[in-house]
Amino acid sequence: MLIRHLRVLPLLVRMHVRSQMEYRGAFWLDRLAQILSYGSVFATIGILLARFDTLGGWTWPELALLFSFQLLAYSLGAAMSFVQLRDLEELVRLGTFDTLLVKPFSPWAYLVFSGLNIGYTGHVILAVVLMGWAVLSVDFAWSVWSVSFLVAALISATLLTAALITMIGATALIWVRSNHLFSIFFGFWELTRYPLNIFPGGIQTILITAVPLALTSSVPVGALLGKPIPILGNWAGPASLVAGPIWVLIAIAHWRYATGKYQGAGG
């Protein structure tokens, strides 16, 4: 049964990608707009650095590495979760989710892979190009260990992003309405473009614990560059690596709990 499911997943992805690429001109224009949009955000950070030289002790190339890491981890994680789980609220409200429960297939797997969002291509392109420049420009002695840590931390941050979005979306199975929680998520996510140490202690604690999005940006990048990390200190590196797998397990438990509580469109 598992092997049959795994064979179906590429087919679901291929069908969805074909549908999104039906109008290729519009698709790539939209990706260009995304690149310009996030590029303007990074330009704003550049303006701040031109005035103050550093931000929380971080230089321009270091902030470029932070911004690109945060954007790439989010893009990869959200491509596997955001639009799919955001739309779950509507599926629950209309009763359409019930049809997924009778399929001989995991509802989560069907939602994720039948809606894989290649619309994040623009985010990924900008993040990879910027990260390539930052890696070459930052004042840091790269080694096999540091590169391995960067890749492992990026995977963990991607898993953490997808796990948090999955938990928010799954809440619709209990409350019916959950999309308002995404506003809170993105409010904190925008803060993680900047070093953690520039924020008050209360916000630092929230970004590490309740909404642990700092573990997808300044904590792993700061640990890599040897920056002082508030609260976590020397544990910043290990915490960055284990955060993703741990939150994936929490997200799995939450999904199972939510589906167990789901009572159908009638409540």
Task: Note down, in words, how this protein is organized.
This protein has 267 residues and is an all-alpha fold. Helices cover 73% and strands 0% of the residues. It has 14 helices and no strands. Helix 3 runs antiparallel to helix 8, helix 3 crosses helix 13 and helix 9 runs parallel beside helix 14. It starts with a helix and ends in a 6-residue tail after the last helix. The relative contact order is 0.14. The mean pLDDT is 86.
The main pleated sheet reads as: none
Number of helices: 14
Strand content: under 5%
Number of strands: 0
Estimate the helix proportion, in percent. over 70%
Pfam family, one: ABC2_membrane_6
Keywords: Membrane, Transmembrane, Transmembrane helix
Protein name: ABC-2 family transporter protein
Organism: Rhizobium indigoferae
